[in-house]
Design goal:
The protein contains 8 helices and no strands. With 259 residues, the chain is mostly helical. The protein has one domain.
């Protein structure tokens, strides 16, 4: 799995640091504006700039949230599709003779456990790699057996049903890995963080230090940080509050097919 610099920090940690940074940036900007006023140098009117920056910030937040949400939905659908593909392949093993059917079902049971272990590994890269390697090994074993049986004319109908199902089951593993790696680029997140701080600086520079202004910046910081937390949590399927447990339960339920 591919990991970026930001992925090494928890979503809540990044959100809290951003909240503090926005508050500090506002305070520094407000102090600079007050010092200029005390020196008879009235700060310029940055109202249009403030409005433009806040509009740009809202646009980037919406864009980033849309990216995270679409990727989250994609990953969830991939897991459901994988469960369906595995289930279809398991059922098509019933088309073979009893002895062959039992061999297939034994391997499929091990395959399901490997896929469950892949999700359960979480952020542990070593366990994730081991589960993926085991998945590929078992899949190759199942495929080789199906390929050999396909040469037998007595299994022609069974093989014509099993081969496409195995293709779908094996191919979607690569799709799932790619989906897990398809996160919002760090460059976009850094741009979002920078825009948050610049907007906070302009707001602080353009405001007088009043209790109402303090409340506004606290609410502004809280809502921005909460939005960033939601974006990051959506973008991290293996950690955080928003996960794929519900979708992965469909793969866990495949255990019932072997009872």
């Amino acid at each position: 799995m591919q990991h970026s610099f930001l992925s090494s920090f928890a979503s809540v940690t990044i959100a809290v640091v951003l909240f503090i940074a926005i508050i500090l940036t506002y305070g520094i900007a407000n102090r600079i504006a007050k010092n200029k006023k005390n020196k008879d140098s009235v700060p310029g009117d940055f109202g249009p700039v403030e409005g433009a920056l806040l509009g740009l910030l809202a646009l980037l937040l919406a864009f980033t949230f849309s990216m995270s949400a679409s990727r989250h939905d994609m990953r969830r659908q991939i897991i459901v599709d994988e469960a369906n593909n595995i289930g279809t392949a398991i059922l098509r093993a019933d088309l073979y003779a009893d002895s062959t059917r039992q061999l297939f079902r034994t391997d499929f049971a091990a395959y399901v456990e490997a896929r469950i272990a892949y999700y359960s590994a979480g952020m542990n890269e070593e366990k994730t790699a081991q589960a993926l390697e085991l998945t590929n090994t078992i899949a190759a074993k199942i495929w080789n057996r199906a390929a050999v049986l396909a040469h037998d004319h007595d299994n022609l109908i069974s093989s014509n049903q099993m081969i496409p199902a195995l293709n779908s089951m094996i191919d979607i593993v690569t799709t799932r890995v790619a989906g897990g790696n398809a996160t919002v680029p760090d460059s976009i997140l850094w741009m979002l963080f920078m825009l948050c701080l610049v907007s906070s600086f302009i707001i602080g520079y353009n405001r007088k230090e009043q209790k109402s202004s303090r409340m506004i910046i606290i609410v502004f910081s809280l809502m921005i940080s909460a939005s960033v937390f939601l974006i990051l949590d959506l973008d991290r399927p293996r950690q955080g509050l928003i996960n794929m447990d519900a979708s992965n339960s469909h793969i866990i339920e495949l255990r019932e097919m072997f009872k």
